[in-house]
Amino acid sequence: MEIIHSIRPLLAVLVSLCAVPLIASSRKANIREGWTFAAAILKFVIIVSMLPAVLRGSQFTFTLWEFLPGASIGFKVDSLGMLFALVASSLWIITSAYSVGYMRGLKEHSQSRYFCFFALALSATIGVAFSANLLTLYLFYEMLSLATYPLVTHHQDQEARQSGRKYLTYILGTSIGLVLPAMLIVYHLTGSLEFTTHGLLAGEVSKGLVTLLLLMFLFGFAKAAIMPFHAWLPAAMVAPTPVSALLHAVAVVKVGVFSIVRVLTGIFGVEILSSFHLDTVVCYIASFTILVGSLIALSQDELKRRLAFSTISQLSYIVLGVALLSPKGMEGGIAHIAMHAFGKITLFFCAGAIFVGTGKKYISEMVGIGRKMPITMTAFFIGALSVIGLPPTGGFFSKWYLVLGTLQANQWPMLVVLLLSSLLNAAYFLPVVYKAFFCTEQEAMFDNIVQEGPIWCVAPLVLTAVISVFLFFYPDIFFRLAAMAIGM
Amino acid sequence: MSQHYPVLLVTVPLLSAFIISGLSWVKKSLCFPVALLALGTSVFCAISLLFRVLDLGIVEYHMGGWMPPWGIAYRVDLLNALVLVVVSSVAFLNLFATHKSVQRDFPEKMGIFYVLYVLFVTGLMGITVTGDVFNLYVLLEIASLTAYALIALGQPDSAPLASLNYVFIGTIGACFYLLGIGYLYIMTGSLNMADIASLLPPIYHSKAVLVAFIFCMVGVCIKMAFFPLHVWLPNAYTFAPNPASSVIAPLMTKVMVYVMIRLVFSVFLPDFSFHVLHIDHAIVWLSCLAIVMGSLLALNQKNIKRMLTYIIVSEIGYMVGGFWLGNRLGMSGAILHILNDAIMTLCLFLAVGNIAYKIRGLDFVHLKGLFRKMPITMAAFVAAGLSVIGVPPTCGFFSKWYLISGAIQAGQYGFMVALLFSSLVNVVLFFRIIEIAYFEPMETHHRVVAMRDVMEEAPLTMLVPLLIVAVSLVAVGIYSGNIVTHIILPVLPKGIG
Known about the structure:
The structure holds two protein chains of two kinds.
Chain A: E1 3-5, H1 8-25, H2 29-55, E2 59-68, E3 71-77, H3 79-105, H4 111-129, H5 134-152, H6 158-190, H7 207-220, H8 232-235, H9 241-268, H10 270-275, H11 278-298, H12 303-324, H13 327-358, H14 369-372, H15 374-388, H16 395-408, H17 412-437, H18 455-473, H19 476-485
Parallel strand pairs in A: 1-2
Antiparallel strand pairs in A: 2-3
Helix pairs in contact in A: 1-2, 1-4, 2-3, 3-4, 3-9, 3-13, 3-18, 3-19, 4-5, 4-9, 5-6, 5-9, 6-7, 7-9, 9-12, 9-13, 11-12, 11-17, 12-13, 12-17, 13-15, 13-16, 13-18, 13-19, 15-17, 15-18, 16-17
Chain B: H1 5-26, H2 31-56, E1 59-62, E2 73-76, H3 78-105, H4 110-129, H5 133-152, H6 159-188, H7 193-199, H8 207-224, H9 232-239, H10 242-276, H11 280-299, H12 304-324, H13 328-358, H14 370-373, H15 375-389, H16 395-410, H17 413-439, H18 451-454, H19 460-478, H20 480-488
Antiparallel strand pairs in B: 1-2
């Protein structure tokens, strides 16, 4: 494996951080958005520029500053981080376009603040993706928590205030209360925090302590919304929809899952997990969240809340896949980071477009909306297919690999969980689509005139829907990165 | 010249106090520049001294050429060089930052204020630099008496009483300390720290030495407001005028923590304090209590300045507990936290000073809409808040890093839990204020407010020092590894694991 020392990982993180003062000081809205796009595109270009080398099996590393021996601010671009960064940075460009349509469409206040903190959040996300050790990861994880707070509470009303409070309580409470001590215990035990290929803790500790640390990390990264630390996610839906779309379906929540995957593989290591049978523990915790999340989603009438519970359940697919410890399962779980992202962001974009176009938030008010907004609802259908895991969408493959993974690992109960959950997914998504298009004239709540949302809202959601379909035919890139991430 | 730095540190501000008091009769506007010049000299001396000690090792200075143990010796190692830099820089920055508010709040007492201010700093510098336990007492009284007077300059209806209360309790503390060194003098016949330290080991098991130790520690604990001996602090610091509280709060308690460490390291020696007495566990548990109670009491406050004073009580628990963990990590954390907590507290109190400059009243209800009114001040306040919470890469995170690591190494999981608990409470404390300042007055959903119309920041002379302090929160955080390796670890006596 070739190690390339390069400043590019740092640049990828810094680009959007440097854009913050520019965005804040721009007087004209178009110039301000220009900076956002410039930063987003530049970030994407820097990340893509590292892709060929990563696909060849190289790693980019950069150490910025060493606080203490073994505890530094260091970056490492490997296939897992690359996969996540690729998803987050490409979707930032699309979401920025969508943000313009959404925020201007609704004439939201404090748009400069909104775009500033969005850029800051993306810096933190890429920071997590490229962190070489637990300390760096923790630093950017906290930065992300704080950067998203003003976004979640954007409306500055009583509801936003309550949600913001819940958000911080869960996210900061768990990261300070559980991850911080767990990290220091790991440092005390091993004298290092670097992510290694076989795990730091291998051969160092007793079963009791490993179990304790595992639970501390698993629940401590509450951004992964593993039950019972999931309640912040539905609450965070009070944010403007682009925030829900990019941050609470992709960046923030996947940072949580990504951190868990990194810690499971880089700190604990596959051997220690399987030899202590901790994989099964994680599997059961994840499958509980999968099923209960899906069940709760069934009963939600507010579209964004239904999507949020769906996200909670889908995030645990990823954790489950990795915890299966079988090659196919891990590959499927990691690839699901990408596949779910494109599907779910489409769904959120649609929810936002519906809100901008009609002001409707509740599913029961959306009967017949397919006649008014056919493009949006078709995209919604594609996004739903991808999240359920049906062809012809990219989501099909990650589910397929997950199912194969349960067979490889001989975990029959998990197979049942996956199939059951897919049925539930279909049960809470398809009626929305069905009612949108197929309803009697009496039921229809909209007239037959086609009237889509603003172009800035519609174009991004069409694009992500097309990508979801595209990924059915060309899923190679993400599966190759996933396969490399588990060392195949 | 440079060999006289240890004494110049103290004498320049001391003499300038006389000049300022003279000037205050002639031309009041000259008081401030003279004070600034004096403290600037101290900052310069302190920083050069730190580099000198880093290069050459311990610097000794014998007053009037009298050799110890008869004469008074000033002895500067890395520990007090570090504290001296902290004391002088904090005092200097605060002096500069608060000038506007002194001018506005008590113009007629400006001369008195600067005399007291400079004398207070003289006292603290003297406490830090001296190598003589009795000289320490004298300078402690200088610092305390001036602090009482500074506090009494506050609101006429509440400050004098708070100050009087502090006088009573503070005097009791000083008496305890004086009695303690009295016993030491009886037993050893010496007042020089190094001399006492060399004479004590054969009589470690004497009851009188034990009593001396307990009296000294109780005295110091009263002065540093170690829970439950903290009762004087919240009122005194809340009712003190802002320009005074923002120098007393960051420095006084921290210097007393330094005195505790100095007494253990250089007078009684760690051998006695840890291995003969076996009180370290008890003190760590008391610190846990201090941390938890300080946090809980802070939660109960409705005034931002008062809330900060209880946070200080809790932070004192960090330092005392960390030190008595008895290992290198914990002690490093405690000493690092002297520096970090001074910066954090200064930043918080300066921000509060700025807020008070623009807004009447510091109760939570007055803070509504502050993010729009004073965005820069609030940004600095949030930065300091994050540091108190312990978010990387601010310096507060690294204090916690060392303290928690020390607790894990010592197996003191209670202390770890107390620290985490306090961090979580701090999240609540600061985000409660952020909520009020950010959300209220309640906005209607889409109301657009033009920023420039309502912005009303404090003057630039108050903002710039605040921003310097806020930036140094991160700068010190980033360099904390270096500070620990090069300055703090060499100070720790050998034999500490």
